[in-house]
Structures are given as structure tokens and as C-alpha cells.
Specification:
This protein has about 575 residues and is of the alpha+beta class. Helices cover about 30% and strands about 20% of the residues. The protein has helices spanning about 5-10, 15-25, 30-35, 40-45, 70-85, 125-135, 165-175, 250-265, 275-285, 285-295, 340-355, 380-385, 385-390, 395-400, 420-430, 520-535, 540-545, 550-555, and strands spanning about 50, 60-65, 70, 105-110, 115-120, 190-195, 210-215, 220-230, 240, 305, 320, 325-330, 340, 360-365, 370-375, 400-405, 445, 460-470, 490-495, 510-515, 565-570. The strands form 4 sheets. Strands 16, 17, 18, 19, 20 and 21 form a 6-stranded mixed beta sheet that branches. The longest helix has 15 residues, at about 250-265.
């Protein structure tokens, strides 16, 4: 077993919940925590939803939001807890910790979670108490167990929905949360469940994805799910395989349990680099994996029926009609997913003020959020609220499609800064580049390392962070080296083009490596000039990037007045 598995053998990871209460009561420092529980405690704390920040003494804490659905009072508590607890100390800048957001902010993630930074262990029990009052949890927000279950953020609202799968999302989430039998899997276990024909919940890149289907069973016409398994990103990305199975909604919990059992028994617990379930599916093949699941499932699993998925959307920004007469939902654009806790609480209060009693706040996988059940006559008043001025539902295409991971501001793995850069670049690109009128969004995803938290492989334009060494004299004035020695090192990134999900799903190609960050916008200007001149009618940017060979794409980028190909990844 690898070291992480040994940590989990030494103590069941869910037992760390009790430890957190002890650490908080005694006010233990990081050194004292490690002295008492050993180095493995940092791994086990992930089951409490807590990651140690790179700034010692502070945690990032992750709130699970199944299907992205929040009642207004839940969203309000999340925002208020950010204001009260996600506060940077003066030695790290205090309220001015970040020049764009200050502190006390929330991050909406690509898994419909909420993350808060600068959390002290002594504040966690009080936060949990406030969460308990409104039905929220951070338990298993991280760690080798079932993570937040994704769903369509417009579940129950859109006409193109086959059926509302939010109750199934909730049932599966409830089954796995705090379930000791399935809380120690070989690796993280990511599920997505939707009744939406547009696959907004990204089944193709999850360990398990349930998408809508229909089938006649014993003379009865039923709606249910087709399962997809073994999808994922990071190193070794893989699109999910569809099984020859039809899952009734009432059997979804048992089916996902059987998949988890298969993973638990057969998954790799030796090499941490290949422990994800997609490697097991690839090793066995989809047919053998299906056999293993059927052997462990206690309900009848008919063969597949008729597929109901027609494509991929993943974007709910804007003002949209609900299928309920006279009601709208509004999708607000949050570039890189970060906004003030006070603003998030304001959005929750606005949902209560302007919406019906069914109003909700929904988190989307593109790091944006929705407010639902707004009577048509109240929409203008909602859009006039102060928070809405920053997160307007009619952004430019780069702002609309921008996604950014946590970056090296807090993450120990990230090589480059991402949140501020994503927001600044998106707005600058909207000003500098004229995108064809029929293109609403350009998906530009920035990950600070190869872990793919920002999902760059499925973007029109994807970046993953590198430290780039330039030739002497190529670093422009004002660009500082990220290390003390100077030695002409700058932040940079691998530059990928042409990714998408849906019927024409494909991972992007990493077209150019080790591009200095200051050369990216000039390179994109060159690409979009060529795209505008060369595109076919209605051709999307990712499709054009696939049609044009990589050598030509590189030559177009290198036509910029910037050292697009002027560096190498530091250490190469």
C-alpha cells in the first residue's frame, strides 16, 4: 500500500471529525497537531473538508452542495460564515490580502462546491454548528470517498429537461456522506446525475455519470438513466465509457453503491498516480467492469434503452424562461468563481426578496451561479441590486467562459497565480478581441499545475502552469522572476486548443509549451484574427482549432510581437 493508504489503515479517516473538535477546544497549532496525530493527519483532515493552506496555521474548507442547489437561507449562511471566519491576518495583508477581492470571499468550484480560505481550526466547530442549522456539511468535501454529487443547476426549471433528477442527486449524496463503509476508497470518487438532455453535469469526465434515458420495461414506459463510467482529467485524461445498462431512478443509490464496491475491491491502492477509477475501467474494459458491477448489485439492471442526451451546454448565464409560467431564472457571471462573502449573502437575500417561496441559489460547473423562481416583473429590480452590477448576466464571451483554479496564492501544487490573472485576462480580451456575434462564450480555463482543477482539457483554450526560463533579454520590463535568484525565470503555461464536451467531445491538443504569461494575449489576438478570416459559417472556435493543423496554429501564435516560443519549462 502507498503511504496514504497506510494513514487510512492507522485510523479511519472519518474519525478525524472528532479530532477537529479537540484541536479547536485546545487551540492547537499545526506543529502540535502533527506531534499528536502524525503527518497522516493532514491527509485525514480532507475527510472533514479541510486542506492545509500553504500559509501555515490556516485551512481551506470546502462546503458540499449536491447538485449545486442551495435554499436562500443556506446561501446566506455560507456568505456570512465567509465574512466571519475567512479573514486573513494582518501579517498576510488583512482585509487587503488580495488586491482584487480583499479577503472574506467564497470560491465557487467546478464541482458546485464552495471553498473558503484563511480558516482557523478553532473556528471550525462554530461554523459547523451554523451549517447544521441549515442542513449544510463539509464532511467528505475532500478525501478518497464520494465527493460532491453534480447535477444540472437548472434542474426542475428548463423545458429541455427529461425529468428532474435533483431528488436522486440528494439520495445518492445522503447515502455516501458519513458512510464509513464507503468512506475509504482507493481514490476520490466523483459522481454526476442529471435528467437534463444537455448533460450540464459533465458525465463524460466523471467516475460515474448518470444521464437521462427511456426504456420499455415489462410493458411500462420508464424514464431512467444510462450510466457512463471511467471519465476524468488530470494526467491520463479519459472520456467515460457507456455501459449497456438502464438504471431506474429508485435504483440509482444501489447502482452507485455497487460501482463504489467494485472500485473499493478492485481499485489500485499501491501506485497513487493510477488509483483513480478510470484506470480500473481502462484496465478491465467497459464490458468486464459492467460484469463486476452487476455481480455486486442487488437490483435488476435491464440493458440500455434510448439515449436522451443531445449535446452539452454547461452554461446558464443570462435571463431564462422557466417552464413554470411567468417565472425566470437568472444566471450571474462570476469570473473565476470568486466573489465576496457579503455579496454572496446579498444574492441570497435578493433571492428571498424578489423570488417566490420556491426561490433558490444554484451553483454551476462553470463557477457561476443562478437565482431561480423570479417573477418576470421582478427581474429588473433583481438586476439593479448592487451585487448584480459586478456579476451581470450579459458578459463578454471571454468573461462568460473563464474558469480558474485556486492557483499558487493558496495551493501547494500550483506553479502560477490564476484567479487574478483569469479575471484580468478575460476582461482585457473582451476589450481587445472581436469575437463573431454568434459566439456567446469562449471557454478559457486556467489551471496552476497539471492537476486540471480548472478542467483545461475540455476548454476552447486551456492553460496549465509552468515556470518558464527565457533567453537573456527576453523578459520585458516590469516582469519579475518568481525566484530570488532572478535568472530570467517568469510565470508561463502550456497552451492548449480545441477541447469540448458533448456529441463532438474531444480533449484539446497542447499546441505550444512553456509560453511566457506576458505572450499569451498577443498570441490569442493572432489566433482570433486568423479564426475570423478563415472560419466556416457557424464554426465554433474549438472546431476551427481542430480543423487547422497544430503546426499552422503554432506559426500563427508565433506571429505575435512577443516571445511565444521563446522559453522552455524550467528544469527541462
Amino acid at each position: 500500500m502507498n503511504t496514504t493508504e497506510q494513514y487510512k489503515q492507522n485510523k479511519h479517516p472519518l474519525d478525524v471529525i472528532d479530532d477537529v473538535y479537540e484541536y479547536a477546544e485546545e487551540g492547537l497549532s499545526f506543529d502540535a497537531i502533527e506531534e499528536r496525530a502524525g503527518g497522516g493527519e493532514w491527509e485525514r483532515l480532507k475527510w472533514a473538508g479541510m486542506y492545509a493552506q500553504k500559509q501555515e496555521g490556516f485551512f481551506m474548507i470546502r462546503t458540499k452542495v449536491p447538485g449545486g442547489y442551495l435554499a436562500p437561507e443556506q446561501a446566506e449562511v455560507i456568505g456570512e460564515c465567509a465574512e466571519d471566519y475567512a479573514v486573513a491576518p494582518e501579517e498576510y495583508g488583512g482585509a487587503e490580502q488580495n488586491e482584487l477581492w480583499g479577503d472574506a470571499y467564497v470560491d465557487i468550484t467546478t464541482r458546485q462546491d464552495i471553498q473558503k480560505h484563511w480558516i482557523r481550526v478553532e473556528d471550525v466547530p462554530e461554523m459547523w454548528e451554523r451549517y447544521d442549522e441549515v442542513g449544510l456539511t463539509t464532511v467528505q468535501g475532500c478525501g478518497d470517498s464520494a465527493r460532491n454529487v453534480l447535477g444540472c443547476p437548472a434542474a426542475g426549471l428548463d423545458e429541455h429537461e427529461c425529468f428532474n433528477a435533483q431528488p436522486v442527486v440528494d439520495a445518492v449524496s445522503d447515502f455516501f456522506t458519513e458512510n464509513r463503509e464507503y468512506a475509504n476508497l482507493p481514490r476520490k470518487f466523483k459522481l454526476t446525475i442529471t435528467g437534463c438532455s444537455h448533460d450540464c453535469a459533465q458525465s463524460q469526465i466523471n467516475d460515474v455519470g448518470l444521464v437521462p434515458a427511456k426504456k420499455e420495461v415489462d410493458g411500462e414506459h420508464l424514464y431512467g438513466f444510462h450510466p457512463r463510467v471511467g471519465g476524468g482529467l488530470s494526467d491520463g485524461p479519459r472520456m467515460a465509457s457507456q455501459l449497456d445498462v438502464f438504471v431506474r431512478p429508485e435504483d440509482a443509490v444501489e447502482f452507485t453503491r455497487a460501482v463504489a464496491q467494485t472500485f473499493k475491491e478492485l481499485g489500485d491502492r499501491n501506485n497513487r498516480g493510477v488509483c483513480r477509477m478510470r484506470y480500473l475501467v481502462e484496465q478491465l474494459g467497459p464490458e468486464k467492469f459492467e460484469e463486476a458491477v452487476r455481480d455486486r448489485c442487488t437490483v435488476d439492471l435491464p440493458t440500455a434503452g434510448t439515449e436522451m442526451t443531445v449535446g452539452y451546454q454547461g452554461d446558464h448565464v443570462g435571463v431564462h424562461d422557466q417552464k413554470q409560467d411567468g417565472l425566470k431564472y437568472v444566471g450571474f457571471n462570476v469570473i473565476a468563481g470568486r466573489m465576496g462573502g457579503d455579496e454572496f449573502a446579498e444574492a441570497a437575500r435578493a433571492a428571498k426578496e424578489y423570488g417566490t417561496e420556491d426561490a433558490s441559489v444554484r451553483l454551476a460547473t462553470d463557477q457561476n451561479f443562478l437565482i431561480t423562481h423570479i417573477p418576470e416583473e421582478n427581474v429588473d429590480d433583481l438586476l439593479a441590486e448592487p451585487f448584480a452590477q459586478e456579476y451581470q448576466p450579459d458578459p463578454g464571451p471571454f468573461s462568460r467562459g473563464a474558469v480558474g483554479c485556486t492557483g499558487n496564492e493558496f495551493c501547494n501544487y500550483a506553479i502560477i497565480e490564476t484567479k487574478k490573472r483569469t479575471k484580468r485576462w478575460a476582461r482585457e480580451l473582451d476589450e481587445r478581441i472581436d469575437v463573431p456575434d454568434d459566439i456567446e462564450a469562449i471557454r478559457m480555463h486556467m489551471s496552476g499545475c497539471s492537476a486540471s482543477c480548472a478542467q483545461p482539457q475540455i476548454a476552447d483554450i486551456g492553460f496549465r502552469g509552468e515556470t518558464v526560463k527565457l533567453e537573456e533579454g527576453e523578459a520585458p520590463e516590469g516582469i519579475e522572476s518568481p525566484n530570488e535568484e532572478g535568472d530570467n525565470l517568469v510565470e508561463g503555461m502550456d497552451f492548449g486548443l480545441g477541447g469540448s464536451l458533448g456529441a463532438d467531445n474531444e480533449f484539446l491538443d497542447w499546441v505550444e509549451s512553456a509560453v511566457p504569461a506576458h505572450a499569451v494575449i498577443p498570441a490569442l489576438e493572432q489566433l482570433f484574427d486568423a479564426y475570423a478570416a478563415d472560419r466556416n459559417d457557424g464554426e465554433k472556435f474549438y472546431a476551427w482549432c481542430r480543423r487547422v493543423d497544430n503546426e499552422r496554429l503554432r506559426s500563427i501564435m508565433q506571429g505575435a510581437d512577443a516571445p511565444v516560443a521563446g522559453g522552455v519549462a524550467h528544469g527541462d
